[in-house]
Amino acid sequence: MVNNQIIGDRETRPSPLSTEDLAVLRDNLREQRLFREDQLRQIAAAPARTDEPVRRTAAQTEVRVKLAASARMVLADVEAALDRIAEGRYGRCQLCRRGIDRDRLMIVPQARYCARCQQVREAGR
Question: Which among 27, 40, 71, 115 could disulfide-bond with 8, CB atoms 3.0 to 4.6 Å apart, if both were Cys?
């Protein structure tokens, strides 16, 4: 059985963000930025081991490349969310322009889309 419920999508208007909510979300995003920047530094600084078989070294390199790409992607999302906060556009869906539910933002503070638009985007992939 498929559950078509959309998390955080309500028939009523989304819960508005209080000043305190926004401060918590901003702090969370800043922590995420520091974590991702540190993660990227660690990945870049990881020495290549020459005493391992070539196959293992190639696999480790591939994993590091994919981890770095993922970290850069999340970092870009976090930076974009911090920019939206600074510009006063945070918490609005970039597709339908409706407010993004507070609960959704508390879970995914870098969310660009409301739950409904996110689901539509993912279904289109």
Answer: 115
